[in-house]
Amino acid sequence: MSKAATKANSGDDIVQWVTFKLADETYGINVMQVQEVLRISEIAPVPGAPHYVLGIINLRGNVVTVIDTRIRLGLPTAEVTDSTRIVIIETARHVVGILVDCVAEVVDVATSEVESAPNVGSDESANYIQGVASRDNELLILVDLNKLLTDEEWDELASL
Amino acid sequence: MKQDTRHDTLLEQQLALGAYLDALLTGSEAPVEQGVEPPEKPQARVSAAPGSEPAQASDTTGSVIPVWAETRFQALLFEVAGLTLAVPLAKLKGVVPNTQGLSEMPGHSPLFLGVTPYQGVQSKVVDTARFVLPKDRAAPLETGIAERSAHLVVIDEGRWALACSKIGDVIELEPAQVKWRTAAGKRLWLAGTVIELMCALLDIDELTQALSHEMA
Hints:
The structure holds two protein chains of two kinds.
Chain A: E1 5-7, E2 13-22, E3 25-30, E4 34-39, E5 53-59, E6 62-68, H1 69-72, E7 85-90, E8 95-100, E9 102-110, E10 129-135, E11 138-143, H2 151-158
Parallel strand pairs in A: 3-11, 6-8
Antiparallel strand pairs in A: 1-2, 2-3, 2-9, 4-7, 5-6, 7-8, 10-11
Chain B: H1 2-26, E1 73-80, E2 83-88, E3 92-97, E4 112-118, E5 121-126, H2 128-132, H3 135-138, H4 145-148, E6 151-155, E7 160-164, E8 166-173, E9 179-180, E10 190-194, E11 199-202, H5 204-215
Parallel strand pairs in B: 2-11, 5-7
Antiparallel strand pairs in B: 1-2, 1-8, 3-6, 4-5, 6-7, 9-10, 10-11
């Protein structure tokens, strides 16, 4: 049985999420999709890349595209700090890096705790929100990384 | 002389506000363009609780009077960007100070400030000022979000919360004290205006419908 998706005694599935901060909000991504977390290093810009692409990094000989998650999510941009991290994730189609303000922790969330995302007039590009969960008076926004970009955008990323 | 001038200014402001509230009701001669219009409906509908009798409209004026206002009713006053609004207690779930802040959802409509937990429900917090004010008055609202969301007026069983800057008194009103929206009124979320208090009385059922429409 996977450590990331176990069953509690009640039969409720428990999923582990890596949480990170963006603009003071806490987001979660499935731990199984996280390969590693890096301190920010030199990111080489790619001419003609989409606006949400920061550039590429060399990860032990492999080229990995880094997405500016704040821009992708329509949040205001922020300065890079000591806490800024690049989370290397593996989606159904690609391995990419996402830039986050800081990585917080790994949390267990029972599926029964996950509520559907509140409909707050979000545009179609915001359907990457898989759901939300309340933890310690804080809202955890769970992200479906496969939907972070559209199919066309994933294709465009692959062609960089 | 100074007192006269001040009195004249106050009178002018009251007249202007009165004219503005009147314009809100009719929707025809608004002094300024309305920022966000709820969806047009072929006929104004009166809000009614499930299973309740349909509300009556005055034959003489064509006013639409909600069920909760058929007799003397209470309402809570609150302030939004200088405009006093009133929510009927019959439709009010609660009032909370916004002390813990709001969780902002990415990619949301500018009409929404975020969500906040309220009695086990994630209440969607509406930027009330942006919703009710005309576009040219709502535009300069970019600053002061914290101030204008100091309190939250929770409605619709906690599904929505209206951000406001100040909570006022609870008042009692006779239906006759309210100038009710007519069937021709375009702002269905506005039940009527109370000129003596210079406030706009909200029709919560219509308001939540309009907000849901904004989400569609």
